[in-house]
Amino acid sequence: MAEPPQKRFKGAAAAASAAPSAYERDLQRAIKLSLQQLGMPSPEPGAAVAGASASAAPTTPRQQQRMAFGAGQQGAPYWFNKLKGFTHECNRSTISLQQIVPPPGGDGEDSITSCIMTTYELELEWLLSELPHLLQYQTPTILVHGQTYREQMESRVPPFIQLRKPDIKIPYGLQHSKLFLVFFKDKLRVAVSTANLISIDYNRKTQAVWVQDFPPKAARSTGGSSDTCEFEETLVDYVRRLELDTRPLRAFDFSLARGVLIPSVPGYHTGSLLNKYGHMRLRRALQNVVIPDAFKMSPVVCQFSSMGAINAKWLEELYTSFAACSTPAEKDERPLHERLKLVWPTVDFIRNSIDGYASGGSLCMPKKNMKDFLVKSQLLYKYLPHPLSGREKVPPHIKTYARVRGNNEAAWVCVTSANLSQAAWGQLQKSGTQLLVRHFELGVLCVPSAEPHCFTLMTHPLASPPATPTKRTAVATATPTPTGSATTAAVVARLPYGLPLQTYGDGDQPWVWDERWDEPDLYGNVWPQVPF
Which of 255, 333, 454, 473 is deepest in the core (most CB within 10 A)? Predict the structure, then answer.
């Protein structure tokens, strides 16, 4: 099968390209200088630059408001991934790998002193080609992965890079989280992604990245920072469980973190550890969240890229955690499909996606896991990006869980590496006194901290997006919100699918990857390429 070309998909509202603004020219010059310092070729005039968006310049008052909103404390601090070779509609409100781990001078950053990245799959050559400054400056880097061919990779690893694979005692356990810890001289950048460190995940699939910078503890002069906080303790515990040194983390102030970490750690968790990981951690976090009364009967929408061998009983267990809040409704006796909605691609979507059937290779759904009750009980909904998103044909690898009301509001959004499985979220045992978790996972629960205590949902980038993080609108920083600056302005969060959700019709088939599909995709291929 030939490698699919990097096709461009134009959104319905694509506009003719305009002359670059003064801001864009300054940004191009800064990027060109950074590339020259790295000994890399400069981009051709007018070429797209990683980390820069045609929509980034604040050229109108409305755009300036969006820029401030995206960089302030009110927006959800996560972005979609920037896709190379796609229209700018697709790449509004996006972030690139080079922005997460920038070169010196990139986005006004100082040199990185060290870096930790975790992933399930790893393409080392590709990663270093994307981040050549790690090679040039020999930045001490630890790569924690979940693959089995460590010995083969180690023969190609530069001496300043360490490869680690956690020793997981639980059967079928995996290191599946996607965490970045990027240490600078004056801050720590924490990013939680849904993408593996491989080319196809960053360039050919929709992903999400939560990111925030944290200052040293000694640098904080206001805000009443204590020695530690829940975010710090959760992060330190998670890094320790990965068998890494946690001492450098203690130097930073996480008291203004704009999210709650939701980790999963392999093990049989009881006692004080019962509510520390997996869906029980999410349950405990949501019990501290006040949601508007209008959300008490609203469903939870689960969107994922893989599903384990689940059953209705476990979905009820999971929903109990999803439905937790500080003002719980009376016991909800409605059918499960009215409380929980599962978003999954159809065969038609995969067949017509940018890479055809090959896109389905990372959407892990064997026939045995696609249970009849999922279809018959109307739990399944089609994964369909909004037609103005620029990503109508881009397959998902993103995982989002959100309590959604109507077509434009969410009480909370959780962006995570965890798919819909007991291995990822955990399964209660022994009358609810023990939680079995098999995978390392990591996510972030995002909850608006100010009135009206709900997100305004954005399903396409033309609907009041937060700004793309660039030189002038860097990733969210832990800067205190000025006193008296509370606002009731819309708090925007982005979801990868359009609303309202569309149910599976009689002719729709959910994608399963070990079934034979004979209708050719847009490249003329059938699935599978080789017999099972």
Answer: 454
